Amino acid sequence: MADVEKKIILVGDEKRFMVNSVIKGLEKEGFIVNVISPSVRELNEVSDDINVYVLFLGETEANEALTFLNDKISEKGILVYALGTSEELKKLYTHINEQKFEKTFERPFNVKDIASSLELGIYTSIEQTEKKKILVIDDDGVMLRTIKEWLKDKYNVFMVNQGVDAITFLAKNEVDLVLLDYEMPVTDGPTVLGMIRAQKHLSNLPVMFLTSKDDKDSVMKIVHLKPEKYLLKSSKPEELVASIDDFFLKQKIDRYNM
Predict the structure, then answer these.
(1) Contact 117/103 with Cβ under 8 angstroms?
(2) Residue 173 burial by Cβ neighbours in a 10 Å radius (0-12, 13-18, 19+)
(3) Which option is the CATH number for 7-127: 3.40.30.10, 3.40.50.300, 3.40.50.2300, 3.40.50.720?
(4) Which of 31, 44, 55, 165 fits as disulfide partner to 160, beta carbons 3.0 to 4.6 Å?
(5) Residue 2 has pLDDT above 60, yes or no
(6) CATH number for the segment(s) 131-257
(7) Cα 45 off chain centre by
(8) Is the pTM of this model over 0.90?
């Protein structure tokens, strides 16, 4: 990491003692800390080359800014960390789903621990630019994190927990594969796939279903939408990863033989 600039955005009030203490501690660890207030205007002005954010809002009311940041997580795949008391974090989770945070730190915390996590996040974000991109869509936060954990060593994994967020993300970001939960409330997997196929630029995007269903009726219901395959949620980690590896290998061979 010596040759990588450790740039982060800290969203908070630097006049607060604890916020200022964290800033100084991170700077001491070699970070370039860009401090902004929780406003849509300032968040919108952040350079695209910085994709690691730290939220330390305290009791600050910043609903519009948090909504904006929540959308940015879905659209850009930025890494967001949160610091605060138990109550402050709970309040934050009402605006941004807890599973969207890369990591959270509850007071009292150690700045060196925060620095280590941020450094890993920066390294990971750089490393991920060379990997195939996979979007995982599932309403179950535990399943999202589980799939990401299984795939993160080989692939650049993005997560959203509802279909509408997936369409928003795909409108602004290119991915190589989508893993889509079959059963979701409000907008289920087949409906989401239909929405994806309705977009001209996404009509050929590879989509695999994550499902507990493998019955013929479920398969036939959506065969016209041309999913790549069905991956059972009960699969072992190595089986699921192998299925995705095989898919990308076949793609590579097909391109070579064209």
Answers:
(1) yes
(2) middle
(3) 3.40.50.2300
(4) 165
(5) no
(6) 3.40.50.2300
(7) 21
(8) no
Task: Write out pLDDT tens, residues 225-250.
Answer: 788 888 888 889 999 999 999 999 88
* Average confidence (pLDDT) over 13-33: 93
Domain edges within the chain: 7-127, 131-257
The reply to whether domains 7-127 and 131-257 share a CATH topology is yes
What does the pLDDT read at residue 218?
A: 65
